[in-house]
Amino acid sequence: MRLQACIALALLLAADTESFTATRTRSGSGFASRTQQQSSQRSSVSRRKRQLPTTTSAFLYSAQFQPLNEGLDDKVNNRHSANDYWYNIRTLPSSTILREIGNPVLAVFGWSTAVSVLHHLLASSGRSALQVMASRLCVSSAAHSFLVSSLGLLLVFRTNSAYQRFNEGRKIWEQILSVSRNLSRLSCLYGREIGPSRRHRIRNLIAAFPYLLRHHIRSGCLCEQGSIDERYRLLLEEPAQQMVETRHEGDKRCGGSTNPADHMLPPKECWVDRRNLPWSLIAPGALEKVAKARNRPLWICDRLGREICDIPYGPNFTNRERQHFLSQVEKLTDAIGKCERIHQTAVPLNYARHSLRSLTLWLLTLPFTMVKDLGFMTGPAAAVIAWLMFGIYQIGYSIEDPFQGSLRLSILCDAIREDVMGNLDDDDQDMVEDQARDSAYHVEATSWIDDAADNTLAPTPLPPQILTSKYSVVTTTKSPLFSMADYKALEQ
What we know:
By secondary structure, this protein is mostly helical. It has helices spanning 2-26, 29-51, 54-64, 85-90, 96-100, 102-124, 128-137, 142-189, 191-194, 196-217, 284-292, 296-309, 319-344, 349-365, 367-374, 378-398, 409-421, 424-454, 464-467, 484-491; strands at 233-236, 242-243, 264-265, 270-273. The chain has three domains: 97-137 and 348-398, no CATH class; 156-244 and 263-347 and 401-422, no CATH class; 428-491, no CATH class. The protein contains 20 helices and four strands. The longest helix has 48 residues, at 142-189. It is elongated. Its main location: membrane.
């Protein structure tokens, strides 16, 4: 039977080989000529390779056979695939989540180990009463099996709600990035009407906005007083009373009071260096006003609106353009409120406490269901389960407020500043060239009008290049006849 199978396999391979040979033969002389040409090219390349030095030939071959997708397979934003399993296991001791939940995991491990030791001592004793107590320490796992589904729903719901807040925060800062780019582009398009000095002030305010918003939604002082030179030291007048998270309102630890004065944090001073970002982007005369402002990103929006309203009215900058500018500033103002909503409103306190209490009780009673089968391995097994369950809870807590470290706001702030301030010198040069070109057109038009006014003969047609310039209202391809009155009106 095996011999027949081997013969059949050999015949099948032979048939495949014959069909492949016939296919190559039917392809004609073109295929043969191409094959010979490729062979000659390979032989010539090999001869040149023998003639060239080793380093030169290696460089030529590396440049010739370099893959086109080189650099495209690099990891972006620390994204991990299933092939990175060993790296993730190896870096487990340095995990941030493990450090944050280390105390409850150690507590569960110690408690489970104590239960396993107590069960072993009672079961190994010769007294029947103690052995009965050891048997009663072991309970059925049916209750934990029923409760684990409900507990999983609690943890998953909390983690999903926290991820929705994280995703919303990312979208808010993406909108801030887009609006900042739009404002920078508009200030470049209407640079002549805005003016160079006002355009610089507008761009500096746009670049300073994300830094001030980041400081507004992140609690904590920027730096200490002793590390700054007195000449460049600036005191930020933080509010004397700052509201904590809204979920603590009506908490029993404050006596159940709903008075805002009972939920305030103590005041603290915050010193900054004028030479650092974003304070170096703000005019020296406005630094004191920024330091005294309670809501600094909102102050930036107010100042932007004032700068836009002060732009003089012109033929290329009407109320329509001004309204479009102000609509972009309103989007920045809306972004402040959205960030404050995420930062100041946490997950309901009752839900968070009930989830944590249920998880803790479930883990503390878990060793009694495993000690009969696992023995002294109850402690390590319970510690691993506690790491998994507390880790899910801690992930939801970490991304609940994405502005405290989950989102890389520093990178986003630097990206906005580079996009807004990066092409400022090129835009200034383009504006100078446009003004020089427009001045040349104006001089040409004025000289032509003066020459036409001195001519007392028949009316002379106006040149098309003047009619099509940006200073003319009439745009046509023909040359209409103008009278002397029209010349004088155009000159005025």
